[in-house]
Every structure is written in C-alpha cells, then in structure tokens.
Amino acid sequence: MQAIRTRLQTLYGTPAMAPHEDPLAELVLTVLSQSTNDRNRDVAFLRLRERFDSWEAVRDAPVGEIEEAIRPGGISKVKSVRIKAILEAVGEDLDLAWMRDAPVEESREYLCALPGVGRKTAACVLLFAYGLRDIPVDTHVSRVGTRLGLFRPGAPFEELHDELLRMTPPGAELELHVNMLRHGRRTCHAQRPACRACALRRMCPGRQA
Ligand code: SF4
Fold first, then answer.
1. Which residues contact 28 (CB under 8 A, 6 or more apart)?
2. CATH number given to 23-130
C-alpha cells in the first residue's frame, strides 16, 4: 500500500480539500451522481439549490417539483423519491452536525440506515463533510484496488470498504480515494487499461500484456 500510495502521489500529487460541513448536500449529491457523469450531476444539484432555498423546502416539496428540478441528472423519478425519503428520515430539524464529534462507527451506522444509503455514500458524507476517518470505494477505486491486488476478487462492497480503511494510514483517506479514482479514470480504464503506459505496472499483478 505504501508503494502504491507513493507512486500515485508522484503522478497526481497530494489532493487536499477542507471539509465542507454540509452533510445533507453530500447525501443529495451522491444520490444525484448515480448513473450519470459529474457535469450532469452538478447541473442537477445547482438547479435544486436554485429552485429551493433550504433543505426543509426540498423535503416538504411535492416529489414532482424535485423531479423537475433535477431532471438533467437523469433517472430523476427515482432520485427525487430517494432524496425526499432521505430528508424525511433525517428528522424534523435536519441536523446532522452531531456527527462532527460522534464516534465514526455510530455515524456510519446511522447513515447506512437511511433509505438507499450504503457504505460508499456514508463514507462520502463522513469524509467530505467532516474529514472523518472513512474512505469511499466507488467503481474506479474498486477496480484499481482489485487489479493491484489490494482486494479479494469479487469481494462485496462492504468488505472492500473495511479492507481499504484498514490499509489506509490515518489522514490519508482523502488522498488515497482521490488518487485511486484519478488513476481509474485516466489510466486503469474498465475496458482497456493502459497498462503499457501505467507507472504502477511493475507492482501490479493485474497488468495486461
Ligand atoms: S498496470 Fe494496468 S491493471 Fe495495473 S494499475 Fe496499471 S493500468 Fe491498471
């Protein structure tokens, strides 16, 4: 892991991003990111923020209005229902600030009990909103990690999250997530990984000829 981390840092630097302290925004953003690209996700998110002046207003709006606002993000019918259900489940005051000081396991358990929220979304909220110790494993991170031999092939996402968290030095969660994601997008593609040009090929058991 240390060798991989160092090589990725050489390639992509050490990403830094201050926690934004808006867990609801992170929850909604991860719902909007499903089955679309970053640009469409962001357009949908901005339209939602422009249409409604608070998360309470989104929660209390008819689902059709939410759907209309987020339409550019795709599968808006499903996503609008999901967003409303999550906001309703969070409770009357829509306050998740308690997570800042709560044990991470407690916060993760709470988030994973929300409708449609799994380990990846929970990890995004904990890491990006509050800088807490968790690391999201998306499809890119999962693919790169499996090819590099970090994960058991075919392991479920729950196990991937536990394993990557166990291997990640405290404080390196954001850096490893972002750099593995970048490597998956730029070099270690799903269909045709550019192994000949890959700076990690000598340490990669999954490299292709
Ligand atoms: S050598 Fe190939 S499979 Fe391994 S990390 Fe690089 S691009 Fe991915």
1. 45, 48, 55, 58, 83, 86
2. 1.10.340.30
